[in-house]
## 1
Amino acid sequence: MSATAPVRHLLGVEDLAPREIVQYLDTAEVFFEVSRRKVRKVPTLRGKTVINLFYEASTRTRTSFEIAGKRLSADVVNISVSTSSVTKGECLLDTVKNLEAMRPDVIVLRHPASGAPNFVTQHTRAGVVNAGDGTHEHPTQALLDAFTVRRAKGRIADLVITIAGDIAHSRVARSDAMLFTALGARVRLCAPRTLLPVGIERYGVEVHDDLPRAVEGADVVMMLRIQRERLTEALIPTTREYSRKFGLNARMLARAKPDAIVMHPGPMNRGVEIDPEVADGPRSVILDQVEAGVAVRMAVLYLLAGEAGQSPLS
Ligand code: NCD
């Protein structure tokens, strides 16, 4: 397998054909194997520069992009906005123009404004990766979730995948729903009515406001946290009541298939949307998702910044 013409940007799942999704997942398999070697480094992106530009908090996504770039031998620069000139009032456009002058090959951007990565593509020659934009998309999270499901279940088509939590504010829910649907899964989205966006059915998903029914017979149960930083009004009752109705505990999980897996993109609010006994239990693949994150991001960086015809490992 080798890169054909390098892909320009990864802005959202919405732009991806099923064939391209499978190319990302298959390429990630190659890098997953690299990440389990004794020497976890390949020369693929030697001489290339990756800038991680994060305007929002992140643990997993930022770290795994950094590790992914380093395992590919790229030079990786991390800009955390709290220590950059953004605190002195510099706007996104000026920041990008200045970074562009340093000739990066890839800019990985996380930003609170939906659409910010699309905007950045107009001001740089670098490939742009959306690492989460507002409530819009988080394509690499969807790819790593699909990678995890495919490894655990051997396929994605025809699986019943329940995604429950703050659907309205979750870019993960949007990207995952589109990606799993594109690969032939049956996606159920579940949230209190106040956290279900209008028109969500257009993604070809089943919509629920009752967790027991949404979990019934599922192959995969993915829980999401309440995005408190994006709530503008009181959309949920007390945390306790939310947890009682929409939290995943062992009793609730018993409604799913006996071999159902449990997922969470993190960060988890233990005891709110998910019980520790489930999060740390035998059905949880939550840390497998994190491991997959490095391999998937290596695949993304390689497909964006690798030379045409270059193989993934050299
Ligand atoms: C998510 C995000 O930032 O969108 N986290 C992640 O990248 N794994 C989900 C969240 O913040 O709840």
Note: The pocket of N-carbamoyl-L-aspartate is lined by residues 60-61, 132, 138, 141, 171-172, 225, 227, 265-266 (CB under 6 Å).
## 2
Amino acid sequence: MRDLLARAEAGEGISLEETASLVAREDEAACRALYEAACRVKLRYVGNDVYLRGLIEYSNICARNCLYCGIRRGNGRIRRFELGLDEILGAAALAEEYGYGSVVLQGGERRDGRAVELVDEAVRGIRKAFPGLGITLSCGEQSHDVYRRWRESGADRYLLRIESSSRELFRRIHPADSDFDERLAALKDLRAAGFQVGSGVMIGLPRQTAADLARDIFFFRDLDLDMIGMGPWLPQHDAPLRDDTPETPEKAARRFRLGLNMIAVTRLLLRDVNIASTTALQTLRPADGREMGLLAGANVIMPNVGAVEHRADYQLYDGKPDLDENAAAIRAALERSIARIGGHIAYRTQGTPRHYLARLNRLSEG
Ligand code: 5AD
């Protein structure tokens, strides 16, 4: 293990089997060594800054029916909402006031003209009112034209998770109207439209193996992604995806561990990308889950800046934290907890992924 870690840290390239063996580590000492190596690589390639992105969950109306998700279209038990333009701009103003370098607009996937227009207006409005704020979209699969339009209106980044790079697993967790190749094509369209592109997977899905997860990391690398957002799969009471055996605290702890390991191994292999420490980690360990993600190699956190009013209707999974914490309380808690682990929050800077900047340089020199 020591030799393997040293080779990975030196950037020598390790095999798929070796990658899987790192992802699967469970013993405390080995995991600690893994996270420390990942943090050294983080320090060397992206520094110790933590970037905060103000998350605006603008709508839970969704045309998709993903088997794991609480806002799938088939869930008749939640109240559907869509923020108005003024509410979205208000949330962005809060992010600006708090010194967050960027905002993320995240909503259910819709391709109808009105939904596309709302996002477009929001992007143009934020760009005009807050020229220095980075704008990230997380609005699902869209046509190349829509991606281009949003990009031209001023959006910089786009998050679209592949959920699993295993075709078979992808098929098991999605209904027939979701298609792996279409998702892949959308990720390529995003790059062609000029976005900084992020993707990611769920970790600890039923019947997912360490080899699947290792292949996910190789997939990130092959796609040359700029940003990675991934977190443990969490059962959702209204969603049909279930594990073969009942949920236990031990299983949750194992998924949490796997989530940290995935962050660390992704940092070791991909070096200069931005990696988010996600809400799913915080869900499994509300006190310090996201902070542990930072200590395993992540460098981005996405605190909610939306109104508390709609939080309960945006439960992608059970146990989502901060249900009635307002944005100010969330910010104060994060400041304390990040200071506690020796992290440094970089305020008022967009935190563009080094990986993206390096690619731009190569292109302009090439
Ligand atoms: N557990 C963990 N993550 C989930 N997501 C959706 N449902 C769940 C769940 N039950 C994640 C998906 C999606 C992102 C917005 O939320 O990966 O891309």
Note: The radius of gyration is 19 Å.
